[in-house]
Specification:
The chain is α/β, with parallel strands linked by helices and 388 residues long. It has 13 helices and twelve strands.
Length: 388
């Protein structure tokens, strides 16, 4: 019998953009990067001050999170989304990407008879990669015309083997908002834990009242959490990376089903998954401040509108997303790579072809509204010169 082939990691999806990045960089002033959702705006002052003055440097902070960290996360969920969670059912994670990538391995240790990870077919690549790294089956779930999970499409054989179902709402890249009540009910019916990635929850534009996406209003946050539908069998995953422009600090948490949270927290403790102490102090300050998020909401909405207008000059008509801070635009020719090259060549704007998220997204580009306003000014000036 031949030896199994060793694992060879695939190319990181966004590294494939490097040739287009080089084309965009030829413009005077360089590339304007809207390809990846990397925040460029400043984090809240209170958080950076708390991190700079923290005394939690000499010792090891608790892996699960300090009482202050867990309490701040619970208070934020209650204050912004009306969800009551006992802090003992909350645990910290070193950003959420590592949690996503680690999860299938930890769940398979818990339930060795199962081997399948279900995830949206057009989504954050780490859901699939986490399954692959754990030696599991990665099975995409179809989306409907509004880029929402089609739970009815899941094969019963896959649900019987499922370790978990991932939901991402608001979704990356298309901004869809899933029926989280239905997802929670599906998981309970099939005995499958549902993990809801809610990192864009603060950037929800659709109020759910039939108006569709609307401009943000101070003090009104229509974001919905799966925890509003009970915590049995469900876990919500949250991050400060997008909410507070704190991606470099790596701070997030998971909350929900107390038994499942406890299991994951205990295993992760053995693996040394610990948010640094100063970062935990900074997170407490960030979760306690909603003002900077309201400012960021207005900032992202304005950029989405500007980017939509820029795309329109290239014959690309795009609707505002229901949530998150991406435009999900269909290429007029159906060739997303061709559109990405054209935007790079003509105005120095770098966007991501949807194929990087999954083959079903191959006709779309994702445009992240993260470039600073001055950079969008530069794109608009290039556009004026091109038209003139």
């Amino acid at each position: 019998m031949s030896e199994p082939a060793p694992f060879s990691p695939p190319a990181y999806p966004y590294d494939r953009l490097d040739p287009i990045r080089e084309r965009a960089a030829r413009h005077d002033g360089g590339v304007v990067d809207c390809s990846v959702g990397t925040p460029t705006d400043p984090p809240p002052d209170a958080a950076t001050r708390a991190m700079a003055t923290s005394a939690r440097v000499a010792g090891y902070p608790p892996s699960v999170g300090t009482p202050e960290f867990r309490g701040a996360a619970a208070s934020w969920l209650q204050r912004r989304f009306g969800v009551a969670v006992d802090p003992v059912a909350i645990a910290g994670c070193v950003g959420t990407k590592e949690f996503v990538a680690d999860l299938p391995h930890l769940l398979r240790l818990r339930t060795p008879s199962r081997d399948t990870v279900l995830y949206p077919e057009v989504s954050y690549p780490s859901y699939e990669m986490g399954a692959i790294l754990a030696g599991c089956r990665a099975v995409p779930v179809a989306l409907d015309a509004a880029w929402r999970l089609d739970l009815a499409s899941i094969d019963p054989n896959d649900s019987d083997r499922a370790l978990c179902l991932w939901v991402n709402s608001p979704g990356n890249p298309a901004g869809g908002i899933d029926d989280l009540s239905a997802a929670a009910a599906w998981g309970r019916h099939h005995g499958v834990p549902v993990f809801s990635d809610e990192c864009y929850i603060e950037f929800t534009w659709d109020h759910g009242d039939g108006r569709g996406p609307v401009a943000p209003v101070d003090g009104i946050v229509p974001g919905r959490s799966i925890l509003a539908h009970g915590d049995a069998g469900v876990v919500a995953v949250h991050s400060l990376s997008k909410r507070s422009n704190f991606a470099g600090a790596r701070a997030g948490f998971f909350a929900g089903d107390a038994e499942l949270v406890h299991y994951l927290a205990e295993v992760r403790k053995h693996a040394g998954r610990i948010i640094p102490g100063p970062v935990q102090d900074a997170a407490v300050a960030a979760f306690g401040d909603d003002g900077h998020v309201d400012v960021q909401r207005r900032r992202y909405w304005a950029r989405l509108e500007r980017l939509a207008a820029i795309l329109a000059t290239f014959g690309v008509q795009v609707e505002m997303p229901a949530g998150a801070f991406y435009l999900w635009a269909e290429a007029p020719s159906g060739d997303a790579w061709e559109l990405a090259k054209r935007l790079a060549d003509e105005i120095g704007l770098l966007v991501s072809p949807g194929e990087l998220d999954a083959p079903p997204g191959a006709s779309h580009v994702r445009v992240a509204a993260v470039a600073p306003d001055a950079a969008l000014d530069l794109v608009e000036s290039r556009l004026t010169m091109r038209i003139g």
